[in-house]
């Protein structure tokens, strides 16, 4: 009997040990790849980020929204409740490739139907690579109403970056308009055309300062003492080195960012390590992220200006100012100096020089394919369509369909968009990029590029003159679902027989957003290896609204069963059972 009890106890003990081992293993697994759950309520609130009171889109009361903090390999779940009352909604996770989850990309009209007022939609995706990324609205022109924020993904435990620092900080740069997105969108889509104009303010992490003393400004709307527009202040300790993650989600403006008296060492761009180089000011375009190292090595008895200036446009927007605060000085103590004026707005040379200087870190080079299977040259032009001002690629201005492409292609609803593919080139022999086109008329289409799966595709972004004399704008182009190799930049017209011979095959950086400079070209290469449907567009909000974008399809047959949560609009209504 005693022996029998002993065997029973031993058996129970073994089961307990096995249970504890399994519990330990599962705990370790969950630590390695956690699920990070967020619940967001998106709604309009009155905010005064630059002292001027206006309706802003907030997430859980914050503009910009909360920073998503995760570790490489984590799964992010964001439950978004649309409390905008009268507006649809979609949120794009900018720089996250959505491998295996193309329906979570958050691009209304491309990968999902919008989230209607009152509904809750769950985005679920894996952050598969460390780095600095962004999120923002991708419906209409909502982004510039404040729905935006940052994503910070750290390396796995025990893995170190190829540089050292003491502290890690993030900063988001945006521009800010006082007119509503409705007013702006209506002006862009009207006859006569009404341009959005230059932004009223530049915000440094959601804070700026508009001049409330202008006589025409309603004093009940503008209050210079409002704590919401207290300048952004970053506190540092003398002798310490800081990694500053800088993202730009401007609606229009290309920016130059600098910290008075301090150099910055660029170490990361769009989630990829850069062969370090030093800059006095960092040029950053909408949709880009950079990490820079800054050492607090100046006189610690005072504070210094952080300054952001609009470049590439002859802007009336005053520089955005913040405070680089040396502890223990008061964080709101103004520096004793005049803020740095920043570079000349029309000097393209240093901007091109920075673009060319960004190379892949020598220990983290991803070699590009040596040849490509397809070359698509994209002429960027401003045009008219039936009198309306539009932006075009190869004389075709993009319109979004009513049924999202991902659903239409997966369920063979090909009649919901035009099937004639967009052009792969333009008349480069005869087109004069330096002058206004003799015929500025273009056409519209919602057709897409069908890419053969796993092939290598080259994109040549070719800039040109707008419909204004001696004017060519900077366009930051963003590719969803991929990173691309930056093969080269050039001035003037791309020569398809000569310029590819000078591509950088040694150490090209990989990015997801890249500028094409005035009267210049930018060459990209990517692998069409992520099954889904992906937007590629100018990241200037009004330009994409006016047709400056394209869509790529690749490997649609490899996409898994689509969740019904992305359906409900256009012809996808049939897949929702009553």
From TrEMBL:
Cofactor(s) the record lists: Cu cation
Xref: InterPro entries: Cu-oxidase-like_N (IPR011707), Cu-oxidase_2nd (IPR001117), Cu-oxidase_C (IPR011706), Cu-oxidase_fam (IPR045087), Cu_oxidase_CS (IPR033138), Cu_oxidase_Cu_BS (IPR002355), Cupredoxin (IPR008972), CuRO_3_AAO (IPR034267)
Enzyme class: oxidoreductase
Assigned keywords, A-Z: Copper, Disulfide bond, Glycoprotein, Membrane, Metal-binding, Oxidoreductase, Repeat, Secreted, Transmembrane, Transmembrane helix
SUPFAM superfamilies associated with the record: Cupredoxins
Organism of origin: Solanum tuberosum (Potato)
Main localization of the protein described in the UniProt heading: secreted
Subcellular location: Secreted
EC number: 1.10.3.3
Protein's name according to its UniProt entry: L-ascorbate oxidase
Source species, domain of life: Eukaryota
């Amino acid at each position: 009997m005693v022996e029998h009890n002993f065997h029973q106890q031993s058996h129970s003990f073994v089961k307990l040990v096995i249970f504890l081992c399994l519990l330990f293993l599962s705990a370790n697994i969950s630590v390695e790849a956690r699920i990070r759950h967020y619940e967001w309520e998106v709604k309009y609130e009155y905010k005064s980020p630059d002292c001027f009171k206006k309706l802003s889109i907030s997430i859980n009361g914050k503009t910009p929204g909360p920073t998503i903090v995760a570790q490489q390999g984590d799964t992010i779940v964001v439950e978004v409740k649309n409390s905008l009352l009268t507006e649809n909604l979609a949120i794009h996770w900018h720089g996250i490739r959505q491998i295996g989850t193309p329906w979570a990309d958050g691009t209304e009209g491309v990968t999902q139907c919008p989230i209607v007022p009152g509904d809750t939609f769950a985005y679920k995706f894996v952050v598969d690579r460390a780095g600095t990324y962004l999120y923002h609205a991708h419906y209409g022109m909502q982004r510039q109403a404040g729905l935006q924020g940052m994503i910070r993904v750290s390396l796995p435990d025990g893995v170190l970056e190829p540089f050292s620092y003491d502290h890690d900080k993030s900063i988001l740069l945006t521009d800010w308009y006082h007119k509503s997105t409705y007013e702006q969108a209506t002006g862009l889509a009207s006859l006569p055309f009404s341009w959005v104009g230059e932004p009223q303010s530049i915000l440094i992490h959601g804070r700026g300062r508009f001049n409330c003393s202008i006589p025409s400004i309603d004093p009940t709307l503008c209050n210079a003492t409002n704590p919401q527009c207290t300048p952004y202040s970053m506190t540092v300790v003398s002798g310490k080195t800081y990694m500053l993650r800088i993202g730009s989600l401007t609606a229009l403006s290309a920016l130059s960012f600098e910290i008075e008296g301090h150099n910055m060492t660029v170490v990361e761009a769009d989630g990829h390590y850069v062969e370090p180089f030093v800059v006095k000011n960092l040029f950053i375009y909408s949709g880009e992220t950079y990490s820079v190292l800054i050492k607090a090595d100046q006189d610690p008895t005072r504070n210094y200006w952080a300054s952001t200036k609009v470049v590439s446009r002859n802007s009336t927007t005053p520089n955005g100012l913040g405070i680089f605060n040396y502890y223990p000085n008061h964080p709101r103590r103004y520096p004793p100096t005049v803020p740095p004026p920043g570079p000349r707005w029309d000097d393209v040379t240093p901007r091109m020089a920075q673009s060319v200087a960004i190379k892949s870190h020598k220990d983290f080079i991803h070699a590009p394919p040596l040849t490509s299977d397809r070359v698509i040259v994209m002429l960027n032009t401003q045009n008219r369509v039936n009198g309306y001002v539009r932006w075009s690629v190869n004389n075709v201005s993009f319109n979004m369909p009513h049924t999202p492409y991902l659903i239409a292609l997966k369920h063979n609803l090909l009649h919901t968009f035009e099937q004639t593919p967009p052009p792969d080139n333009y008349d480069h022999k005869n087109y004069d990029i330096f002058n206004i086109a003799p015929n500025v008329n273009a056409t519209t289409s919602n057709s897409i590029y069908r890419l053969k799966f796993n092939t290598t595709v080259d994109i040549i972004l070719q800039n040109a003159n707008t419909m204004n004399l001696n004017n060519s704008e900077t366009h930051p182009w963003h590719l969803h679902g991929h990173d691309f190799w930056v093969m080269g930049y050039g001035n003037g017209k791309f020569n398809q027989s000569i310029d590819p011979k000078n591509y950088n095959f040694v150490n090209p950086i990989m990015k997801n957003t890249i500028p094409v400079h005035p009267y210049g070209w930018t060459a990209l290469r990517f692998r069409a290896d992520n099954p889904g449907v992906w937007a590629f567009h100018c990241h200037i909000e009004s330009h994409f609204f006016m047709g400056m974008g394209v869509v790529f399809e690749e490997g649609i047959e490899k996409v898994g069963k689509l969740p019904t949560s992305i359906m409900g609009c256009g012809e996808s209504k049939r897949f929702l059972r009553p």
